[in-house]
Write a structure and sequence with these properties.
- The complex is a heterodimer.
- By secondary structure, chain A is α/β, with parallel strands linked by helices.
- Chain A is built from 8 helices and 10 strands.
- By secondary structure, chain B is α+β, with helices and mostly antiparallel strands.
- Chain B has a 6-stranded mixed β-barrel.
- In chain B, helix 1 packs across helix 10 and helix 2 packs antiparallel against helix 8.
- Classes of the chains: A alpha/beta, B alpha+beta.
- At the A-B interface, helix 2 and helix 3 of A face helix 1, helix 9 and helix 12 of B.
């Protein structure tokens, strides 16, 4: 991929992701309307918004699973807007760690093998390293279990381990706590805090105000536009308990605050 | 862990976790491979099987004296020695003489009854074969002409070689029905006719029934011809050609059935694999989302197809032989021999058929959009 990457001189070196006037148009509908966004390396950003606000579209475009109709998306210094489907596959593989609401594990592989799948497509499966990744999310003991033998929270933690295994530039999570109970929600958010402290760039799409509030910055999308950019002042030096967070108020989210 | 062993794990894991679907596909391939390998076994065995069956049509080679004289006992034995024992169904020498029965001139044929029975199994005898020199068999038309019945005595008259009139009384042991010119003949043992006519060593033809086909049979005729200037061996074209036609048609039929079965197997496997792709849309979408290329997705499906093809092919080889054995035993009353060459052919064709059948499902797998699948659609 290195030979294909295009250096963007205008880009701030600190910015791992830049969206410039990005729109996604489906016929009459503008799912995204001229969106500008910069995410710094190591930043933890939450994207919020009601259903149909363009969150998923934005996530797909950032994640290289969809293409913008207009504008530029610069990921790690490379304009991915004009890349072919094949090249986008390589970008997803090399630069992005994906976490989904419905977990999505390969059901005939064990937890550790599910982590190794990502290694397999990236380079070389390494069981030792995959076990270490599971250890990080507290699941080393469950490494040989199949998805059907794991709880939802455990499955999501396997997926986080899988997303991290190839050292992605950005961890992109779509409603990662959407299918989890409060305890597991907390576990996942706590893992994000640790990753953030270690310097990982995290983008979380969520409609949970508390999960949005624990991020460093919350962006609110409405009708395909960014309407709010809220800086949260959180202390990441100690473990997070979501109960301590009131979340962003409706007023703030609706732009009345 | 090596990439190849992880690949193998993914391929077999997917097959084992989707057991019911994969069993359907495996069954389709195994049934297809069974019937195809069974039919191919029969295809190669049919000439061997049917050539013997078809010998019931009568002699397929006739040896006559080249110079219009007669064949001696010695010459008959020389010719018999040239024939391959394992392919010789029967060799019946015939002596023909004109005799008079109830003042009607009739052709009397003297032959060796056991050999005549072997070369002409289609003869229908009411009564018994003429077992001794005092018995004769009448062709059904002759019997009708003189109104003779089985068990009755009849008197034959003739002029022998010395120009003297001879006569003798014989018992009718049987009436011969053939649907052909034999019904106009009287049949007796060669020794009975010899003693009636008062001489020996005077056969007119030797009718041979040999279970060989085509070039092998004509080659045999040429060997007999080149062994002596006195004999002329020729094939009975009516019989040999119709045998060839029957074999060609049967083999063509088997080929057509084989092609139909291959196509049906392909459709069945393609349908199953398409259903598998549909069921695994999310998994394929996930793999593509986390960086699997189309080539890797294709390789995984192809690997599953090849695995199924090999397993189905091996099953097909074993079951196919049993199937061919059963068919051969119940239709031809003979067992078939195992053809080792069919083992790689069956397995490779199973793999090829499965791989081709996987093409369309593989294409739809690579067309899956990761973003759509991951939204839960």
């Amino acid at each position: 991929m290195a030979d294909k990457s295009k250096s963007v001189t205008a880009q701030d070196n600190e910015d791992i992701l830049v969206l410039e006037g990005v729109s996604k148009i489906y016929g009459e509908l503008k799912a995204l309307n001229n969106v500008d966004l910069k995410v710094k390396k190591g930043e933890w950003v939450a994207i919020m918004g009601p259903s149909g606000s363009g969150k998923s579209t934005m996530m797909n475009i950032i994640g290289g699973m969809d293409k913008a109709s207009e504008g530029r998306v610069i990921l790690d210094g490379m304009d991915i807007t004009k890349e072919s489907a094949k090249s986008l596959t390589n970008i997803r593989r090399d630069k992005i760690g994906l976490i989904f609401q419905q977990f999505h594990m390969v059901n005939y592989l064990t937890a550790v093998e599910n982590v190794m799948v990502a290694q397999y497509y990236h380079s070389m499966p390494d069981e030792e390293e995959a076990l270490q990744a599971l250890d990080r999310v507290g699941l080393k003991e469950r490494a040989k279990h199949y998805p059907s033998q794991l709880s939802g929270g455990e499955q999501q933690r396997v997926c986080i381990a899988r997303a991290l295994i190839n050292y992605p530039k950005i961890l992109l999570a779509d409603e990662p706590t959407g299918n989890l109970d409060e305890t597991n929600e907390n576990v996942v958010v706590e893992i994000f805090r640790q990753l953030h402290n270690e310097g990982s760039t995290i983008i979380v799409v969520t409609h949970d105000p508390e999960v949005a509030a624990v991020a460093e910055r919350t962006i609110v999308l409405e009708h395909g536009r960014i309407t709010k950019n809220i800086i949260n002042h959180n202390d990441y030096s100690k473990p997070i308990n979501l109960r301590d967070y009131e979340g962003l108020s409706d007023e703030m989210l609706l732009g009345k605050g | 862990m090596k990439r190849s062993s992880f690949y193998f794990k993914m391929v077999t894991g997917a097959l084992l976790r989707k057991r019911s679907r994969m069993l359907v596909a495996l069954l389709a391939i195994a049934v297809g491979a069974t019937i195809v390998s069974g039919l191919m076994t029969i295809y190669y065995d049919i000439p061997r099987q049917l050539t013997r069956e078809l010998r019931s049509y009568g002699a397929n080679m006739v040896v006559t004296p080249a110079d219009g004289t007669k064949l001696t006992y010695e010459e008959i034995e020389t010719i018999r020695a040239l024939l391959p024992a394992e392919n010789t169904v029967g060799t019946a020498p015939y002596r023909y003489e004109t005799v008079t029965l109830n003042s009607q001139p009739v052709t009397a044929a003297g032959t060796q009854m056991n050999e005549a029975a072997a070369t002409s199994p289609y003869w229908n005898i009411s009564g018994e074969w003429a077992a001794d020199d005092s018995s004769i068999m009448l062709g059904s038309k002759v019997a009708q002409l003189v109104n003779a019945k089985v068990g009755q005595n009849v008197e034959l008259e003739a002029d022998n070689g010395a120009g003297e009139g001879v006569k003798n009384t014989y018992t009718v042991s049987g009436i011969v029905e053939t649907g052909g010119s034999e019904e106009n003949f009287i049949f007796m043992t060669d020794t009975a006719l010899d003693s009636f006519m008062g001489d020996t060593d005077s056969f007119d033809t030797l009718e041979c029934s040999i279970s060989l086909q085509g070039d092998e049979l004509s080659g045999l005729a040429e060997r007999i011809n080149s062994s002596s200037d006195r004999v002329n061996a020729r094939l009975v074209k009516r019989v040999t050609e119709s045998e060839g036609t029957v074999l060609t048609k049967l083999q063509a039929l088997i080929l057509i059935v084989t092609i139909v079965i291959i196509v049906l197997t392909m459709i069945s496997v393609a349908t199953t694999m398409t259903a598998v792709v549909t069921e695994r849309r999310r998994e394929i979408g996930l793999k593509k989302a986390i960086g699997a290329s189309n080539r890797e997705i294709t390789t995984e499906f192809l690997g599953q197809g090849i695995f199924l093809g090999v397993c189905g092919g091996i099953l097909g080889v074993v079951l196919g032989f049993l199937f061919a054995q059963y068919v051969s035993n119940s239709v031809f009353f003979r067992s078939v021999s195992f053809i080792w060459g069919l083992v790689p052919v069956t397995i490779l064709s199973s793999v090829a058929v499965t791989a081709v059948a996987c093409l369309i499902p593989m294409r739809s797998a690579t067309n899956i959009d990761p973003a759509l699948v991951l939204k839960g659609e």
